[in-house]
Amino acid sequence: MTDEQKDLEFVMDKYGRTVNGIITSMLSSPSEREDIFQEVFLLYYTKELYFPEEAARRSWLIRTAINLCKAANRSPWNRLRDGEEFDLNTLPAGGSDSADTGLWAAMCRLKEKYRLPLFLHYFEEISIQEIARAMKLSEGAVKMRLRRAKEKLKAELESVKEQKEKEAAVHEREREYNIHSSKA
Question: Most exposed: 88, 114, 132, 183, by fewest CB within 10 Å?
Fold first, then answer.
């Protein structure tokens, strides 16, 4: 195994989850996500890149994933698809807990400009400064997007909770009705 291959393996092990999460939060098609994931690391492997620090490498990978996803979303093929929904079965954190699924589903309903910083900061624990650098935004803009994302996510989760409570109340009334009508 060459040094370049070892470096690629190291980088994929260290940043694969982050890159996959970004791609998952931006693209709906599972096959398209796999293609972009491979393309990010193929670009990393084929280009002669130098990074003075590890944060610069991670920033490059994040920026490349974002750019490739945006290009994929602008493609004519993407415009022809009929509003394909996100595949909620693919959680970037690898969790399958119902709370994780509900949170991820709520995040997927947010606009990309809110979803991406939220994912990077809270799921991947990337600093606001680094997110700003990777997304080519000011730190203030990232903070504002995070604040608005949290507000929108909270409202979304509360809406889902209220809907579930209403459904539970309806089911309880139906159950009581069926019990009383069967006795009569």
Answer: 183
- List, for residues 116-135, the tens digit of each pLDDT value: 898 889 888 999 999 998 88
The CB density around residue 80, as the number of other CB atoms within 10 Å, is 7
In a domain, 158, yes or no: no
| Domain extent at residue 23 | 3-153
Residue 74 to residues 20, 39, 165, Cα–Cα distance (Å): 19, 17, 39
Residue 81 token pair: 């698809």
Question: Who has greater pLDDT, 48 or 137?
Answer: 137
- CATH code, 72: 1.20.140
pTM to 2 decimals? 0.70
- Cα separation, 1 vs 39, whole angstroms: 21
Assess contact for 117 and 149: CB atoms under 8 A.
yes
